[in-house]
Design brief:
single chain, alpha/beta, Aldehyde Dehydrogenase, Chain A, domain 2, Aldehyde Dehydrogenase, Chain A, domain 1, seven-stranded mixed sheet
């Protein structure tokens, strides 16, 4: 099936005013580094340099933590929940007012299609601030325990796949519960966090309540190791999550870790097949597969596998890969050269181990980092592509005969972040959800998020929850839990 041809519909870059270089946002203002260096952030679709960003030093982290502590002790920790909520409502409204600016910048720096930045990332980020603003003066009624109160200073390290949205997931509950924040965005996607600093100023948030320090791994480690950090929140790779857990073992620091995933998307014979195909596409090719909860393992009931694979491949031939700023684009650029190398390595391993590779054969741009939507069939449980997180637009297809076999294969992974179940039987959905070791189980849909719903994993996918009432508990201490 040939794809329907559209004329290019590029979004304008004129709504974004990029500075040639950025400092650090500490104590309510941008400031130069003390001993840090600089690095360039690039557009992964074109490889053009967008700006130069500071690689913060340990001394810079010290300043940021000190500013956060002063703000907590002097203003924010003493402020009523109702007044804190007003600031969060104000931030949410500003994000909505500047939504186009944030969407374009996110696409430039990250490589994801503009329609995803515009329709998913930015609206959900604003929704998280709206939602948590409503909780700020109601914490004692949230079922968190007796006399919930803030930890103090929270260190937060976020990934490159959803830079603005992960910022909102972290900062909104921290501020609603009375904590102050030192946040480090990923080194390949720092620009929307730095633009958010402008929102913080526009909202007249007291100086030091939110501090943003850019940098690479050493900067993140300085936050993790800092003795005046009370709680850590990290989203990223399982390997780094394990390092953080080891670093804080034996200390007083609390932590939530949201790590990798290898989600199973399970299709039963009675599923609505065309609807399931759309769910499969959204599950693995949304955001180029740069999603920790991506449905990267497709488990199909054996007697419909051939039909489903045929329909899926036909659908993938209609996906448009190209300029992320074009409103017609379905699959954008891979976030970095390093990530592209990782995807290439694992797909080569899939072929070497005997799985059958298929891609949609689309033409790729000459510059930038690109990978075609790819499907592997004939995959076994022992293949690397069925066990390791690829974090790219690559789907592994396995089959099963019974619900029990589907559960056994779905759970046969070190991860436990998410899963999907497609069937017309409500009883089967409930039984599967009870059996699957995953923090989130979607029924007849995939990759749907809401700030009222908690998100988090089991096993090597981390611990703790973000979002919903449950996500608030990680940011408070109570008389019942110390």
């Amino acid at each position: 099936m040939a794809k329907f041809e559209y004329a290019p519909a590029p979004e304008s870059r004129a709504v974004v005013d990029l500075a040639p270089s950025y400092g650090l946002f500490i104590n309510g203002e941008f400031t130069e580094s003390q001993g840090g260096s600089a690095f360039k952030t690039v557009n992964p679709a074109t490889e053009e340099v967008l700006s130069e960003v500071t690689d913060a030093s340990a001394a810079d982290v010290d300043r940021a933590v000190a500013a956060a502590r002063r703000a907590y002790n002097g203003v924010w920790g003493r402020m009523s929940g109702a007044d804190r909520g007003k600031y969060l409502f104000r931030i949410a409204r500003i994000l909505q007012e500047r939504a186009r600016e944030f969407a374009v910048l996110e696409t430039l720096d990250n490589g994801k299609p503009i329609k995803e930045s515009r329709d998913v990332d930015v609206p959900l980020a604003a929704a998280h601030f709206f939602y948590h603003a409503g909780w700020a003066d109601k914490l004692e009624y949230a079922g968190l325990g007796t006399n919930p109160r803030a930890h103090g200073v929270v260190g937060q390290v976020i990934p490159w796949n959803f830079p603005l949205l992960m910022l909102a997931w972290k900062i909104a509950p921290a501020l609603a519960t009375g904590n102050t924040v030192v946040l480090k965005p990923a080194e390949t996607t720092p620009l929307t966090a730095l633009l958010f600093a402008d929102v913080v100023q526009q909202a007249d948030l007291p100086p030091g309540v939110v501090n943003i320090v850019t940098g690479a791994g050493a900067t993140g480690q300085a936050i993790v190791d800092h003795p005046d950090i009370d709680k850590l929140a990290f989203t990223g790779s399982t390997g780094v999550g394990k390092m953080i857990a080891r670093s804080i073992a034996g200390t007083r620091k609390k932590a939530t870790l949201e790590l990798g995933g290898k989600a199973a998307n399970i299709i039963f014979e009675d599923a609505a097949i065309d609807q399931a195909v759309e769910g499969i596409v959204n599950g693995i090719f949304f955001n180029q597969g740069h999603v920790c909860c991506a449905g990267s393992r497709l488990l199909v009931q054996e007697n419909i596998a051939e039909d489903l694979e045929r329909r899926l491949k036909r659908r993938l031939q209609t996906l448009r890969v190209g300029d992320p700023l074009d409103k017609n684009t379905d699959v954008g650029a891979i976030n970095s050269k390093a990530q592209l190398s990782r995807i290439t390595e694992l797909t080569a391993a899939g072929e070497a181990e005997g799985a059958e590779r298929w891609d949609n054969g689309c033409e790729l741009p000459a510059k930038g980092f690109w990978f075609r939507p790819t499907v592997f069939t004939g995959v076994s449980q022992g293949h690397r592509i069925a066990q390791e997180e690829i974090f790219g637009p690559v789907l592994s297809v396995l089959t099963f005969r019974t619900p029990q076999e589907a559960v056994a294969k779905a759970n046969n992974t070190p991860y436990g972040l998410s899963a999907g179940v497609w069937t017309e039987k409500g009883s089967r959905i409930l039984w599967m959800a009870d059996q699957l070791r995953a923090g989130v189980v979607w029924a007849n849909t995939f990759n749907k998020f809401d700030p009222t719903s908690p998100f988090g994993g089991y096993k090597e996918s981390g611990y703790g929850r973000e979002g919903g009432r449950h996500g608030l508990s990680a940011y408070v201490t109570t008389e019942s839990n110390g």
